[in-house]
């Protein structure tokens, strides 16, 4: 626990231990998502109240129970373990198609654009009901929207453009609901959900479906390439995939930006007293590298498979898409490594450019050869 | 050992089904269902893990 003043001049408490982070995330009554007056995020501060409220609608990440529970319940049906099993053959097909294309084009390849991004992108588009032909537009937008190096005004413009795009899709689904998730939401819950909520939900799922798995696939491949013995284990033992995915999630912790919560009452964490109405920020990467959680946390050990990691968060906001992300990764990593058993970096490791200022950690590109 | 599930608290993350699909199941909306509430000896460790992993705190154990 460290008390500090953040770059916006707000005092905050940084929580770094695995168990403390878990307790805070599990306790939504005392550690709320609702920002007290004066604690606006920079992008929100550039909007008037009416627009802030419209942008808040359907944004599960910004809500507390019971409102959060109402919306989440409508979506969990699409992410059950059973539903994932139904999706599995289609994900395998998508992965194989992209590997075929890579093989046909020949070595070397740029892994982000050939594999890591298009696979989760196509999967979430089909699931949600977003036309994949529009991908260039929304892939660019989702990547830039969460890049803190981009000025607030531009990020706000991107968010507005993203909403306009989603509004058109929601209108389409209202008049002609398809077999996808947007169609299901309109058909089964169309009366309980406002258009703003549908736009918010769909926008969040599109963003989250892109930025997370795509970066895990690229960064995870890089992590395996620089640990060849770990790579060989994942390639040669199909049964190892689930544990390897959990370990890569823990080791890489791509949600690198601290997660904010606000105290609703006086609390004590790790022996430190915190008054009500204070900003508490949680570092998921540090929790995942806590010696109180796992031994030798800085070692990548694909046999470890500790599913108690915090990469998907904890508490009521635990990643909705976690079962989908796990499924995609369990299929994609082994398939890539088996298709190209001699996969290697095409450029030296120090030349890899990382997304240091981004909400989600990752690489900008990854040149590989085989 | 008995496992208890609070379906009102459950957020449908599915961690329990992933950990032990012989004890836990999900309904169509994702909420937890128990296939059995008495936990057999050889499932105890996994069920304890599922209770610990549950993000929403919907699961608990009782020793009866």
Question: Short summary of the structure?
Answer:
The complex is a heterodimer of chains A (370) and B (64). Chain A has 370 residues and is α+β, with helices and mostly antiparallel strands.
Explain what the structure shows.
The complex is a heterodimer of chains A (370) and B (64). Chain A has 370 residues and is an alpha+beta fold. Chain A has 15 helices and ten strands. The mean pLDDT of chain A is 93. Chain B is of the alpha+beta class and 64 residues long. Chain B has a single domain, classed as Alpha-Beta Plaits (2-Layer Sandwich), CATH 3.30.70.20. In chain B, a hairpin with a 5-residue loop joins strand 2 and strand 3. Classes of the chains: A alpha+beta (370), B alpha+beta (64).
- Low-confidence segments of chain A, given as residue ranges, are none
CATH architecture of chain B: 2-Layer Sandwich
- What Rg of chain A do the Cα atoms give? 21 Å
CATH architecture of chain A: Orthogonal Bundle
Give the proportion of residues in helices of chain A: 40-55%
Mean pLDDT of chain A: 93
* Biggest β-sheet: strands ordered side by side in the sheet of chain A: 1-2-8-5-3
Q: How many separate helices of chain B?
A: 2
Major beta-sheet overview of chain A: 5 strands, mixed
Enumerate the spans of chain B where pLDDT stays under 50 for 5 or more consecutive residues.
none
Main beta sheet of chain B: strand number and arrangement? 2 strands, antiparallel
Distance between the termini of chain B: 6 Å
